[in-house]
Amino acid sequence: MKKNIILINDTSQINHFGCRFVNYSLNQLLKKNNLNPVLRCLNEEKYENIIQKTKNLRFDGIVINGEGTLHDKQNYSETIFNLIEYFYKNYGKNIFLINAVIQNLPKKSLDSLRKCKKIYVRESCSQKYLLSKHIKSKVVPDLIFGYTFPKEKKIRSNKIVFTDSVFVNTTKNLFKISKLKTNYVFCPLMTKPKIQNYKSIHKLLKFYLAKIKSNLYLFFLIKNQILPDIILRDQITFWSY
């Protein structure tokens, strides 16, 4: 029997190959288990917007895609914990946290986690951290490992691939190292923004201007994105995830 769910922290609109394939895998998993998302709440979507959308909505449970969002005291992790409190108090539906990395949370956030029916983390460090706070969880590897990629002819190569980091300075250093030898190749996972995700040219320009303002180097990497078809053409054995 199909169940209707609300999916929180959908990262499919983030300009990154990793997020893209995680969401492909998540969609496969939901379909396989007869779970139908009647509402997808995007990463960084405002708390008030989500509450408004859920009014008069009929659903059976809530699934939260944790990814790398739930650590320390940052803005969007607080939004997710506030949503857990809201759904727990007002609906009494089961809340499942999946695919999460969890670290360094304040007591208030840990108390919110205790309201989840099940918690699935993607590595043992998060599990040990939660266990030290008397919270049970189960380790399930990153969702991306469950995605079924199209079968491609494997080509052996002596190429060594360097990719980017969430830390800009680390990305710079990796890029410099990738230029030291001819068999080193740099392949960033950051992608160009999908134009259809931006309702106006103004918002698209705002995205690029923000990248220029934060770091000209990172903007250059995004603008000159090396796509997976180029990887295959250059005979590099590497999947962009």
CATH architectural group of the largest domain: 3-Layer(aba) Sandwich
Inertia-based shape: globular
Please report the first level of CATH classification, the CATH class of the largest domain.
Answer: Alpha Beta
Element-level helix/strand string: EHEHEHEHEHEEHEHHH
Roughly what fraction of the amino acids lie in strands?
Answer: 15-25%
Name the CATH superfamily assignment of the largest domain.
Glycogen Phosphorylase B
Within the largest sheet, what's the order of strands? Answer: 2-1-3-4-5-6
The helix/strand class is: alpha/beta
Total number of strands? 8
Instruction: Give the end-to-end Cα distance, rounded to a whole number of Å.
Output: 33 Å
Helical content band: 25-40%
Runs in which pLDDT lies below 50 for 5 or more consecutive residues are 225-241
- Which fold name is given in CATH as the topology of the largest domain? Rossmann fold
Mean pLDDT: 80
Summed up, the domain count is 2
Number of helices: 9
Tell me the Rg in angstroms.
20 Å
Note the main sheet.
Answer: 6 strands, parallel
Secondary-structure map:
Layout (H helix, E strand, L loop, with lengths): L2 E8 L6 H16 L2 E8 L4 H8 L6 E7 L7 H16 L3 E7 L6 H7 L4 E4 L2 H9 L5 E2 L20 E3 L5 H11 L5 E3 L14 H14 L1 H8 L4 H6 L8
Parallel strand pairs: 1-2, 1-3, 3-4, 4-5, 5-6, 7-8
Helix pairs in contact: 7-8
